């Protein structure tokens, strides 16, 4: 699907092979342009019987169920579920805060160590999902957002489009402030209804503002999934010495004695996470809180499995 | 707070070490790029109040740990009586000089149960131990007998010093304070602590004495350079009121009585026992009184009634040839041994010799008659009448009373010898009664003697000229039976005015004195402003007042010349008493303290017997009030510590343990405040999610 001569450090063939057999399912009917694996909101001809419906003038007479008419002397039309493809919009937060990372991992040479940032982790998730989606015939697009939409690639099914996405992912750097709320509102409006939107960000914005975004996206019939990426240090705040904290998004620096401030920090973080949990539950968002020290394969396995299970239940 | 090792306090600034380390730590910060600024900002906003306080509390507790450790190593002393400051300890401005004012009066010899340590012993021991502990560069003792500063080499010497032992003389605290003030000024002392050890008896402290105000002003000028520490002994708390649980005995009179046939003589003893509280209520008790008289001992029981026991005229028969001697009475031991014994002497009454100095024959005769007729048949009385010009040939040695009716002699006149003789007579205890010269010329020619001067003759209007007189004391006092002298019936026609400072004993209707007494250390000087002549007054016609007046003055004057005498401890000069030989009393007492120790002494020069006893004021238990004490030391650096006789708790106590406990508490507190907040493992769950 892409040029194997160009190794991408955010794509792991082993992970792709492991996840290759797992479908990427939408949680709600998608409006695709071609036939695919995903449920369409429209009823059409298919092998999957959906329901009986009373005949109304204008219906195709070929779809009348004469047997039912014979039994009940009433006119019913047989409806079958239509399957379609999905448009997957990958939204990657490329603000300055996404360049933060403290997790060290071995490089490809297995000797040197490198630090993993949240942005790198987001690249891996976005690239893998993109690969899986194109693999099952779905269209994939990419939006890199910071203080606006930095880069936007429309959703296409073409495998060659995947390379463009990978190139873009490789090029992006974290910088600038986060204007995630405004960008998500914009994407909700500009993306054609019934798309799958997957956001990878640290979501360092006011949760109450996010509620509006999520409701807007849901109103537009999109299937929204969030990968909330957090570094372990952001969670533990385990500093020993007095520290001058420099804002990665250009704000003012803060000098603090960690021992003095740690309790309050954890209190604020806990409050924020609880708010996020509450909002995503209320707005029906598929929410995944991810510590970037966790294997992204496990994260994606959980993501895909949960969706597949939800589909079976329906 | 004082410290035994005050130099250790130089390490006190180490208490700032935690704060300094904290500040250095603040400067050694690291810089780091940070993404989750929103939580940091929120935490910073929330980081107010308790957290800030907690941080400062931790620092304060750490500083306290070090400070407490330094204090503990400095060996702090806790004592209410030690009011030195830390600054004073650090700069070495502790008690460089210590003056101990020691009240050795008999009341200080009371104890809790009669066998344990007395107030005096307790006070001396506590002061000595305290000074041994805290140290002093110079130790000066001012005790109530000598009232003169005496340097003591070490505090331990106070234990063995006889001058810190018991005495029977009352104390004069203002005089001792004055001695301390003079010593400080004379030696230009720096930091000085004046320790006063006393039981606050009224007659020792003399709270209304005029010297206190000048002392207060003088000590106020020193500021905090001179500090006062009062070791006040009150009534025992364990044994109730020491004063109320104690009996004292006192002889009112011991006189020799010869029988009519002169075969034998006897001593008549009258004594009084002041009882304690139990004697004043309930059934009458009997107190055995031991009577020691010239190697013989007898016991007589005295009934206590209403808190007082009286024994009047108890007769002790003497051998036929004994006419002189001494003895003592004593009661069983109680809480204060110092007032359980009373010494007395007896002797044949000495012949009473009166010298009448007058140019007027009639006046001379009247005065001679009044002086020669004695009320006691055992007493012989002689009166000589001489002219002022014939005084040169008069022998003054055995004169008890001088009745002077002539111009007053003066030191700068031709009669200066007479003036000196009269002053000498008064100085050895004799009495003088001056009557005015008859003529106005002589009055005008009178000089000034004893600070007094005759003015001029004047007429008195009215029938009964005397408006008031002192019937409670001195020459015109009422009789023993309680009847007043008929002074009010006297008629005075003419009198001479008086100029000078004297106490009026009888006053005429216009306020002029009829009889006045000049204050003298010893003896007695009286001025009568009229003469016994009929044209001047009815002193001779109504002779009772004149007779009693002269006989009382004569008896008082004779007592100073007798072969025996009863004196209060501390009245005689110590140098004079050094020559006495001790016959009875405390053998361990120094001869230099003869004047202050109860006992019987014999003068080496003339063999005169002297009985020395505590003053009658010592039997009065009134104490100066706490408010009065506060008023006396008002505005002065003053600390008072109330102690009890026999209690062995030290004035000073090392309290380093308290500082170590404080340090421990501070460390525990600091550790508790530094404990990280226990947070559950999944307090901030990383993994999680929700799905609709």
Automatic annotation (TrEMBL), chain A:
InterPro entries linked: DUF58, vWFA_dom_sf
Residue ranges of every copy of the DUF58 domain listed in the record: 51-254
Name of the molecule in the record: DUF58 domain-containing protein
UniProtKB/TrEMBL annotation, chain B:
Species name: Allorhodopirellula heiligendammensis
Pfam families in UniProt: BatA
Listed PANTHER family: BLL2463 PROTEIN
Entry's transmembrane regions: 6-24, 56-74
Magnesium recorded as keyword: no
Cross-referenced InterPro entries: Aerotolerance_reg_N, Double_TM_dom
Keywords, alphabetical: Membrane, Transmembrane, Transmembrane helix
Residues in Aerotolerance regulator N-terminal domain copies: 1-76
Keyword Transmembrane helix among UniProt keywords: yes
NCBIfam families xref list: two_anch
Signal peptide range in chain numbering: none
Protein name according to UniProt: Aerotolerance regulator N-terminal domain-containing protein
